[in-house]
């Protein structure tokens, strides 16, 4: 059954793969962007590959902006049944050197955005008796990471949100899950110096980086009817780098 899926931060490496895989599965896909102008080239590139996506400007840290975006999506595209909270940033530095600005920026974008984006959509899901909320966390939200107290705290907090909301909406046919990727071969990771990248890979038991498409396949599965008995889960996709 074709449904409408919204992916925040859908124009990055993992986000683009998520949008494409959801479209391949028959969904109508909406994404958000925060920097005006970027969407023009991205939409054109996707069109060349056979994908027609809907894109809306939205600052995920701004509750009112999210409400406005949600109203536009409902009016212009339709009710959202699959929500992928993928937007995120990093501001890495040791806690000793971390500024309040660096802390606030990461918490606002990576954690406050869950409230801001999920709030306008989840009631519609429960009313219709079907919904999928999928929160993209990180291996570093599970194990912590040097120089990422802000990011690790935000990503760990995402799963607390997942577990609590999952209990509230489960009886209404809505599932809420977390996906925690490890190191994925995005442009950002591939731009790291070769020797550093190889050192990272040496710590991954499967001896390679993950692919954005592998993360997207997992998310697409969680978005489907067949994943209805999975909720409140944190699914690691990290090549065995962190097991728990």
Structural key phrases:
244 residues, 7-stranded parallel β-sheet, alpha/beta, single chain, globular, 9 helices, Rossmann fold
Q: In what order do the strands lie side by side in the largest sheet?
A: 3-2-1-4-5-6-7
Please give the domain count.
Answer: 1
Terminal-residue CA separation:
35 Å
> Rough shape?
globular
Given the structure, what is the number of helices? 9
Identify the quaternary structure here.
single chain
Percentage of residues in DSSP E strands: 5-15%
**Nearest-angstrom radius of gyration?**
17 Å
The count of DSSP E runs of length 2 or more, i.e. the number of strands, is 7
Low-confidence stretches: none
Largest sheet: 7 strands, parallel
- Average pLDDT works out at 96
Quick take:
The protein is an alpha/beta fold and 244 residues long. It has helices at 13-24, 38-48, 63-76, 100-128, 139-143, 149-169, 187-190, 194-202, 212-222, and strands spanning 4-7, 28-33, 54-57, 82-85, 131-136, 174-181, 234-237. The chain has one domain (4-184, 212-236): NAD(P)-binding Rossmann-like Domain (Rossmann fold, 3-Layer(aba) Sandwich), CATH 3.40.50.720.
